Amino acid sequence: MLDTRALSRQPGSSREKILSVPAPEDFGVEMVGVPEGASIELDLRLEAVLEGVLVTGTARVPLEGECARCLDPITSEFEADFQELFVYPDTRSGGNADDDEFRLEDDLIDLEPVLRDAVLLALPLSPLCRDDCPGLCPDCGARLADAGPEHHHDVADPRWAALQGLAGGVAPVPPTGGSGDDEPRGSTDRREGKQEG
């Protein structure tokens, strides 16, 4: 919880804070996330406005996960910016606030939902150890980055295996027609008939 009482609800007053808070559980997506309890560094600016407190900040979080192509472990840092208005519940705007708007409770701000939205929505669903990661060999599972470009397998497509057995004993058959000669049919007979007459 973030205490805003120092702003005294005076529009125009502001405070800047640098905080370090532990990461909650399940703070990530399927293949990458922030380890539970890891330190989240927050650089915040709190501004009192008529409706409530406007919070602008940057969150720096450590990430751990695995590459979506080669499954190698990934560790990195990630930075997300956010801005959110927290409305006072006892004001006209706070009383009419929608369910998706955030309220102050006793002048305290719960930043966790805002951080989840800012960080989790920006995390890659398919993180990579590097942009050109070639991944794993689909036949043997070797890391293609280690195996090199010459790595390959001579594996026949199983869909053609039955046809390969048939092709071994069959010889090609030449096409046949009425007469296989190149000359037009009946041309020899006509020449011979003219010589006789």
Automatic annotation (TrEMBL):
Give a Pfam family name: YceD
Looking up InterPro entries in the UniProt record yields: YceD
**Biased composition annotated in UniProt, kind: Basic and acidic residues:** 182-197
Question: Which region ranges are annotated with the description Disordered?
Answer: 166-197
Specify the protein name.
YceD family protein
